[in-house]
Amino acid sequence: MPGNESEMTPPPLFDAPWYKGSGKLQGKVAIVAGGDSGIGRSVSVLFAREGANVVIVYHEQHEDANFTKVAVEKEGGKCITIATDLAKKEACEEVVRRTLEAFGKLDILINHHGTQWKVDNILDVTPEQIQTTFSVNVFSFYYLTQAAIPHLKPGSSIINTTSGLAYTGRPGLTVYSSTKAAITNMTYSLSAELVAKGIRVNGVAPGPIWTPFIPGSFEPSLMKSFGHEVPMKRAGQPEEVAPSYVFLASNDSSYMTGQVLHPNGGLNVSS
Known about the structure:
- The structure is a single chain.
- By secondary structure, this protein is α/β, with parallel strands linked by helices.
- It is built from 8 helices and 7 strands, in the order βαβαβαβαβααβααβ.
- It has a single domain, classed as NAD(P)-binding Rossmann-like Domain (Rossmann fold).
- 38% of the residues lie in helices and 12% in strands.
- β4, α4 and β5 form a beta-alpha-beta unit.
- α1 packs across α8 and α4 runs parallel beside α6.
- The longest helix is centred in the middle third of the chain and has 22 residues.
- The radius of gyration is 17 Å and the shape is globular.
């Protein structure tokens, strides 16, 4: 956990061959935390297709990160990878410092990294699991955002990955769902705080998406039915979610802040 994309069968679809870039992010620099695999990989590739240079931050999945770096460079974008533990404030500060050293600026921050444990009985959740989940999923979002804000100029964008579970919850994922609810409210509150600086803050709440998170967290017996609970009766692919991030990062969404997009296969959630 969170799992290696290189070991998944079938592999997630990330490169969106139907998506045509049009320079929406030309010359921009983006940090994509959790950009080595899954949705983060697809976001990194489509950002590069739109003209951005990308900093991929990840924990320890080196093979996945290198694969994504090559995919970004094939799109014409420059890319560096940083392996670190974003639950540490100093690590987040180091990520921003290295981004500035490599590219001289920062325009887009994608807080996408996370972890989860499926524990069916709340009484069995350990203090360590609670601490780790909140440290990785929530505290690190604050640390990386704090490090980035002094270097973001008007027109910059912060995009937080929350989840449909922030609105619906799910048995066995109480702690994870709680962190995603915290991220959602962080998005709402921070957007109001930064609007005067011209920095937009939005979120994306994916539904069931086929990423390394899934086989890394759930029993094999659940894989065949994964995603069947939504109206489309299937799991989504990373390439079906990544365009939401492109939209929110670009001037196409210049009149949007404090909003959350829901690529979730038709599930009706209240926001």
